[in-house]
Amino acid sequence: MTVNFEEKTYENYFNAELDRCSEIFFPLGQVQEGFLGFDSSANSRNRRLWRSIGFPFWFHPPFAGIELREIAREMEFYLERSIESIPRMKANLLFQYKRPEYIKTSTGKEWSYWNQPYFRYDIYQKQQDLLNEIDSKFGDRVLIIYACPAIKDINELVQKKIENGIIDNSNFKRATDLNGHYRNTYISTGNFSIACSDPERIENLDLIKILESLGQNIKETNYSNRQFIINFRKQLSSIIDENPIYGESFKKLKDNLRTNYYGKSELFYSIVVMNIIKQLTGIQWLIKI
Question: Is the CB of residue 202 less than 8 Å from the CB of residue 192?
Answer without folding.
Answer: yes
